[in-house]
Write a structure and sequence with these properties.
Length: 350
């Protein structure tokens, strides 16, 4: 069982956070409150598909395991009661059929909720082409659900995941999840993941898709998983994606999701990629020097949020304090915990 846990938790942890695991079976997810300790696991790494980059692809020679839902529920609860983890993220390889594996996920969560009365956080993976009724069952049990898009466009998806159906298997399920989410079914919304660097997709393509998903499908987050070659897969000799590229994508994603930027406002090189040398917000500012420095005492919220060094919370504080106070010195901003070195040259006081 220990070997099974080691393999199935390792295969489940695709997203990179920059933090080391606390324990072998614990994944440090990032939240607004800090690090949230998730027990992140595949129910099985048995899979009928052959995605080119994936370590659990059917044609790869590796140890295979399956943990029964009842057993997985008990293992998780032991970790939870010992205060080693704060929530569960459960996924699976597609074993036998999408419905069979989706049922294993659903059964695990059902046991935790109904038999053991667990009321904590659960994130469930929706598998491509799984029956909509099974997916709907998750709506009454999971706090968050996700389905992986894997690629920024169908042309890349078909190359990377030849056995999966992009439109009917993934997009249709995403639309269905979106319709449920808009009814307030999921406490923590829906998310997706894109593998970056496994093919020739460009940053502008990825970010246009993410913006579309936020606007039209109401996704809570899109995660960018940097490609890393796995031995004995067709892409084992391909170079891993630069972690700096992943960082810039996340920074640009925040600008779109929280700061009101549109993808077409960001600056890309001739190949369609973000600069890896500078924060995309700083790149935008350098290309709009005509509007800087902005008057910190008069600029509206939209403009303040485009100033390098001023974030969501600090811009709101400035607007609120300006009603009864006029900023005159750098020390006035320093009291708001604004990094003066970063904002100098971009703002003025009169």
């Amino acid at each position: 069982m220990l070997k099974a846990l080691e393999v199935l938790t390792k295969e489940a942890s695709f997203e990179s956070t920059g933090y080391k695991r606390f324990l072998d079976y614990i994944y440090p997810a990032l939240s607004c409150e800090g690090i949230f300790r998730l027990f992140k696991i595949l129910i099985t790494n048995k899979c009928q598909n052959n995605c080119l980059y994936c370590g659990v692809r059917a044609r790869r020679n590796c140890q295979r395991f399956l943990i029964a839902p009842q057993q997985l529920a008990r293992i998780f609860l032991e970790l939870y009661k010992a205060k080693k983890v704060e929530g569960l993220f459960v996924s699976s390889g597609i074993y036998k059929s999408p419905d069979y594996s989706q049922r294993l996920i659903l059964d695990t969560i059902y046991i935790l909720r109904k038999k053991f009365n667990f009321r904590g956080f659960i994130h469930a993976k929706v598998l491509p082409s799984a029956d909509l009724n099974l997916i709907k069952g998750l709506a009454f049990l999971a706090d968050r659900v996700s389905i992986n898009l894997e690629a920024s466009a169908e042309v890349f998806f078909k190359k990377l995941c030849p056995e999966k159906d992009y439109n009917q298997g993934v997009i249709e399920r995403l639309r269905f999840l979106s319709s449920l989410s808009k009814k307030g079914v999921f406490k923590s919304g829906i998310t997706s993941q894109i593998v970056v660097g496994a093919d020739k997709e460009k940053d502008n393509q990825i970010l246009r898709l993410s913006s579309f998903l936020y606007t039209n499908y109401g996704l809570r987050r899109v995660y960018y998983s940097g490609f890393f070659p796995v031995k004995n897969t067709p892409l084992e000799n391909k170079k891993p994606v630069s972690q700096r590229r992943i960082l810039r994508l996340y920074q640009a994603d925040v600008l779109i999701r929280k700061y009101g930027f549109r993808p077409q406002e960001l600056f890309f090189d001739k190949e369609g990629n973000l600069s890896q040398d500078r924060d995309p917000k700083l790149v935008w500012a350098y290309n709009h020097r005509e509007i800087f420095p902005v008057n910190v005492n008069k600029a509206d919220l939209h403009l303040l949020r485009r100033v390098p060094g001023i974030g969501i919370k600090s811009s709101e504080k400035i607007i609120r304090i300006r009603k009864f106070f006029r900023f005159k010195h750098w020390e006035d901003l320093k009291k708001l915990r604004i990094n003066i070195k970063r904002v100098k040259g971009w703002i003025r006081f009169d």
